[in-house]
């Protein structure tokens, strides 16, 4: 997120609190607009769009607070990269929560690659490499000093870079508060803007704290959660109504946490459930229990609602139809029994 200067240090003059700053390319010669934006606004990011190809129009609104800033940025399409040596100036390694209010397409490479859409809210760590490519867009957010974030989460915020924040709960409150404060900023006094900005900072720090704790807990528990979920799936896969939502409820975790845990093992929850049903069906085919079952009865016992689906998935998994597999198992068992008799 672009802005004019680093966050003011703790103890900045109270006259700065709630100050409203607006900068735009209006009145700047078209051939100089991008250069103006680069030199006056983009302290953290370096624009990569060639200056001489087309005009570049942009506007920045900024509410200045001690160790916090609320910023809104509207601009034409721009591609930007982290500026060399950016973290060397005071406040250059701070943390931002950004909200993409409106966009046609945004690509971000920041601790991984992702595409952003209108309404996405995410975390930026300016101490880490950042590359963004944006069509014309409108974004807003809050920038916090790294020191305050470290105090709030009790550790290094680097793990949060690029993380998308929830659209509900506290995330929804912060989203609404940021938009309303920046939309109404020019109708408020400096004291009122400072009050609104302070409330935004409190919400942002609480949200970062909850996000960081959730990731720490998820990493610590992911091994045990994965093992427990797999055991549950093995026990209950015979129930055709059993699916990922039932695993979530039984494990007492969020859907996102469960899916992230399985992704760490290169698995999907649904695929593991279907695989467990196929393995159960394969065991039943060669068991005493399954000998008296028809193929359709065996499919139902393994958690399949339709025998055609079962037959198709079984053939794809084992390379033969269920009936053929049963016949081969019978022949193998008979051969084994004959060997034992000869012994």
Comma- or semicolon-separated keywords:
single chain; 343 residues; alpha+beta; Jelly Rolls; Arc Repressor Mutant, subunit A; six-stranded antiparallel sheet; five-stranded antiparallel sheet; 19% strand; elongated; disordered N terminus
Mind explaining what this structure looks like?
It is a single chain. With 343 residues, this protein is α+β, with helices and mostly antiparallel strands. It has two domains: 14-216, Jelly Rolls, CATH 2.60.120; 237-343, Homeodomain-like (Arc Repressor Mutant, subunit A), CATH 1.10.10. It is built from eleven helices and eleven strands. Helix 4 crosses helix 6. The radius of gyration is 29 Å and the shape is elongated.
Q: TL;DR of this structure?
A:
The protein is of the alpha+beta class and 343 residues long. It folds into two domains: 14-216, Jelly Rolls (Sandwich), CATH 2.60.120.10; 237-343, Orthogonal Bundle (Arc Repressor Mutant, subunit A).
């Amino acid at each position: 997120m672009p802005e004019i200067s680093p966050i003011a240090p703790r103890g900045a003059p109270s006259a700065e609190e709630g100050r409203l700053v607006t900068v735009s390319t209006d009145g700047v010669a078209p051939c100089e607009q991008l250069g103006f934006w680069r030199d006056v606004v983009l302290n953290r990011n370096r624009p990569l769009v060639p200056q001489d190809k087309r005009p570049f129009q942009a506007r920045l609104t900024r509410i200045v607070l001690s160790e916090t800033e609320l910023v809104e940025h509207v601009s034409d399409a721009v591609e930007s990269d982290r500026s060399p040596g950016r973290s060397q100036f005071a406040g250059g390694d701070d943390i931002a929560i950004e909200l993409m209010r409106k966009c046609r397409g945004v690509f971000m490479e920041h601790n991984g690659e992702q595409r952003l859409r209108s309404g996405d809210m995410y975390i930026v760590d300016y101490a880490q490499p950042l590359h963004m490519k944006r069509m014309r867009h409108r974004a807003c957010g809050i920038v916090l000093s790294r020191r305050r974030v470290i105090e709030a989460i009790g550790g290094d915020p680097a793990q949060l870079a690029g993380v998308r924040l929830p659209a509900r709960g506290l995330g929804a409150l912060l989203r609404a508060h940021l938009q309303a404060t920046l939309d109404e900023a020019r109708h408020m006094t400096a004291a009122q803007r400072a009050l609104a900005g302070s409330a935004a900072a409190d919400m942002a720090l609480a949200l970062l704290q909850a996000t960081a704790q959730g990731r720490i807990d998820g990493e610590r528990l992911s091994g045990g959660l994965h093992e427990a979920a797999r055991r549950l799936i093995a026990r209950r896969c015979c129930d055709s109504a059993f699916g990922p939502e039932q695993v979530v409820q039984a494990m007492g975790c969020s859907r996102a946490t469960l899916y992230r845990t399985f992704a760490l093992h290169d698995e999907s929850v649904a695929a593991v459930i279907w695989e467990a049903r196929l393995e159960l069906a394969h065991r039943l085919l060669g068991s005493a229990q399954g000998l008296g079952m028809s193929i359709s009865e065996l499919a139902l016992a393994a958690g399949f609602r339709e025998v055609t689906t079962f037959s198709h998935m079984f053939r794809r998994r084992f390379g033969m139809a269920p009936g053929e597999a049963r016949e081969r198992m019978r022949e193998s068992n008979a051969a084994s029994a004959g060997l034992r008799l000869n012994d």
